[in-house]
Here is the input.
Amino acid sequence: MIKHLHVIHNDKFTDDFIKFILNNFKPDEHRFIVIGKLNRSEHEISTLENDLVYRIEALRNLKTLLFYHKFIYKAERLHFHGLFNGDLIKLLYLQPWLLKKSNWIIWGGDLYFFQKPKDNWKKKINEFCRKAVIKNFNEITSFIPGDYKVAKKVYKTEADYNYAITYNVFAEPSYYDKLVSQASKNNSKTTFIQVGNSADSSNNHIDILKMLLPYKEKDIKIVVPLSYGDERHKERIITFGNVNFGDKFKPITDFYELKEYLKVLNQVEVAIFNHKRQQGLGNMTKLLRLGKKVYLRSDISSWDYFNNIGAKVYDTLNINDISFEELTYYSTNIKEENINIIKKIMSDEYRIELWNEILEKKI
Here is the structure.
């Protein structure tokens, strides 16, 4: 009998999560099914060499379906990491009895499909099945309590809520301390401002860039991470930035390893996000840990999350009403308080403690 089966799609966080479970809990109690093509180097799954980890590219042929169901019915508890796969959702819809032993780990975008237009029959069927599945999950796990509240409101679920640091998007604490120390010695007069975290149109980049237009004659550099997301949107942002800010606009189009990316973030003093849902949380958390001032909208669940843990963040919706000095000023006391709060959130001990509660929970 398998105690825990994790069904997880291939992403940049997948390999680390599998290692985290195998290194900190009883490995023989866990199995992992990774769904998705594994030929993207940035999503390499080194743990596939482990005989507790299996790969399924899709759930569309008899062989993979039989393999999948062999494990689904042997497991005492099921953990679905992200609900992005339409075939998986339909299988759960057709087997609702499995939901009584199932835990949905929200990734972010998988919760907010209801906001997207249903402009064809396939999308309508997928959302119909999603509603029934989410409503009947036994547990929902999320880093953001507000996302659970959204699930309850939209999908009428009565699932139990688990709070956990779901995926490690960080690096070792000593590396952050080193970068914070380096930034404190930086005497540059140029103010580096980050806009968004990807080339996804949900960043609403142009709205932020328009907010910053009154300051284009200031000594600023606008850093815009665009290494993944919508290619057409990326080109629009680069064109707009170059036309309006010239050489003060600095798009980041290359994909960086984590530590190299942290060096880029460490140049920033102010970061502005304009998502209309929970998104970019890993970026925001890293920036706060590095001692940066972070703006996000006050009408999304991420805002409530940071306020609930005691971290001070600032409202993107107020930027048009403040001066450049107010936009960029960040008191040393608030900076240090935020760094210490995020230190705890990032710690391995805290993450292990939270996941131990979930895995040992009686259902």
Q: What stands out?
A: Residues 119 and 125 are 11 Å apart (CA to CA). The chain is about 40% helix and 15% strand.
